[in-house]
Structure formats: C-alpha cells, structure tokens
Amino acid sequence: MHTADAVETIQREMTVFARRARAAAGRMHPELSLVSYTLLGHLEESGGCRATDLAAHYALDKSTVSRQVGGLERAGLIERRPDARDHRVQVVHLTDTGRHLLAQVTESRRAAFRERLADWPTQDLNRFADYLVRYNARPGPDRQA
After folding, report:
1. Confidence at residue 127, expressed as pLDDT on a 0 to 100 scale
2. Are 142 and 59 in contact (CB under 8 A)?
3. How many CB atoms lie within 10 A of CB 72?
4. What contacts 73, CB < 8 A, 6 or more positions away?
5. Rounded to whole angstroms, how far apart are CA atoms 95 and 112?
6. 98, 60 contact by CB (below 8 A)
7. Is residue 92 within 8 Å of residue 43, measured between CB atoms?
8. CA 35 to CA 99: how far, in whole Å?
9. What Rg do the C-alpha atoms of the chain give, in angstroms?
10. Which regions in the chain score pLDDT beneath 50?
C-alpha cells in the first residue's frame, strides 16, 4: 500500500471509530455525551480545574465548554468551588454522583472494548496500544503542545 493510500485508510477508519465512540457513548448513558464523558474523565484525572483550563486542554471554544459544564452541573455531576489560592476563581470538581456515573460508564466502555478485542492476539493488542499512544502523543493542528 502506498503512503497516500495508507493515510486515506487511516483517516477513514479513524472517522468510523469516532462515529462508533459517539454512538456507543449515547447508548451507554443517553444523557452523557462523549464530550461530557471526556470532560468528566479529565476532571477526575486532574482533581478539578477551571472551565477555561478544560477549553484550553481540549482546544474547544469557551462557550462550548461553558454549555457542557452548565449541563453537567445541572445534572449534579459536577460542582464549582472557589479556588483555595484565589477565591475569585471557580474550580470545577466531580460530585460523588459524577464520580459514580463516570466509573459506571468507564466500566461499560472497557467491557465493550474487551468484547470487541477478545480474539486479538496479545502481540496485536500491544502493538495497537503502542500505535495509539504514539499517534496521540504527537501535537497536531487540532492539539496544543
């Protein structure tokens, strides 16, 4: 396969992957979009952050993040608290409900991946994992360094 053909195949398959991920997220928890799931995961990983930090991290428009944060807050999945160092700043944190829902959806997603990859040899799984890490580690036009 030529480089141009391989890049075209990768682009097409990544698009299919993204569509499936969005659809699967909707089936696992209809009120929790893939974007919301991703934001909750980042909040858990970071221990909380400002909404502007979320926007910068994911290269999203601040208004998009603001709408997502507002919806997650109304659903009781996150809460805003004053920053311990600067009380003028609001830091977004997971609530216990948000943490529980995130764990539930994460386990459902892992189970779906395990099922889909069940017949792959370990060597192929490791290679695929390594390639994904390598691909996602490189900054591109859609990612900040």
Report:
1. 95
2. yes
3. 24
4. 79, 80
5. 26
6. no
7. yes
8. 16
9. 18
10. 143-145
Residue 39: both structure tokens together: 């934001």
The 3-state DSSP class for residue 89 equals coil
Tokens coding 31: 């009120």
pLDDT of residue 24: 72
What pLDDT score does 145 carry? 40
- Who contacts 144 (Cβ-Cβ below 8 Å, separation ≥6)? 56, 57, 59
CA distance 138 to 145: 8
- In the numeric block, the tokens 């990612």 are attached to 143
92-116 pLDDT, tens digit each: 999 999 999 999 888 888 898 899 9
**Integer angstrom CA distances of residue 5 from 1, 8, 10, 12, 59:** 6, 5, 9, 11, 29
Q: What span, in angstroms and rounded, lies between the C-alpha atoms of 62 and 121? A: 42
CA–CA distance from 59 to each of 2, 51, 53, 67 (Å)? 32, 12, 10, 15
- Alpha helices by DSSP H, the chain: 3-28, 34-46, 51-58, 62-74, 96-116, 122-137
